[in-house]
Amino acid sequence: MYNYFSLPCPAPPSVVAAYKSLRLSSLRVDAACFGSTYTREAAFTDDKWSERLDSPFKRTFVASVSSASSFKMEGKERFPDGSSWVATVSVLAPSELLPTNWEPYLLVGLRVHPEHRGKGLAQALMKHGLEWARAFTDPKFTETNDETERMVALVVHDNEAACTLYTKMGFHNLEGGSWEEGLHCMVVKV
């Protein structure tokens, strides 16, 4: 059994440290699936890691292995120990991508620990991300239009598992545009 939650904003140091550990582990184990590298992100300062989580225009979702402990403690939300975190995904609202004219939401950093793959974690995290995007009102836009109700993901061509998952979740290939070599863009209506 798994627990799903979004990381708080601002994130306390313990949450930042757990996220950093999960992200660096992801880059070390599944380097070919990311547009960044372990070496690049291992050099980030603690402030840089905090900045990644402290934007009101971004939400990071995590799946952890269930434990008997409660998520509420003395009226305050408590997060499971970072060592039990096994999957993550982040959704960036259009305002997170300023000053560009980018309008869709962007799905980034989807990763599930190899021992926990095939159990529906990625789908569940993506559903949480899509729900957040549907409910979030981005101040960059005063009116909703068809273009702002989309989520995109850049996918490595050779990552068949990701392409299959995104297709199951309703994403389809976005033709045209110029993407970094080896990547293609998939899009879904939010």
TrEMBL record:
<keyword id="KW-0808">Transferase</keyword>
<dbReference type="InterPro" id="IPR000182">
    <property type="entry name" value="GNAT_dom"/>
</dbReference>
<protein>
    <recommendedName>
        <fullName>N-acetyltransferase domain-containing protein</fullName>
    </recommendedName>
</protein>
<feature type="domain" description="N-acetyltransferase">
    <location>
        <begin position="42"/>
        <end position="190"/>
    </location>
</feature>
<dbReference type="GO" id="GO:0016747">
    <property type="term" value="F:acyltransferase activity, transferring groups other than amino-acyl groups"/>
</dbReference>
<dbReference type="InterPro" id="IPR050680">
    <property type="entry name" value="YpeA/RimI_acetyltransf"/>
</dbReference>
<dbReference type="Pfam" id="PF00583">
    <property type="entry name" value="Acetyltransf_1"/>
</dbReference>
<dbReference type="InterPro" id="IPR016181">
    <property type="entry name" value="Acyl_CoA_acyltransferase"/>
</dbReference>
<keyword id="KW-0012">Acyltransferase</keyword>
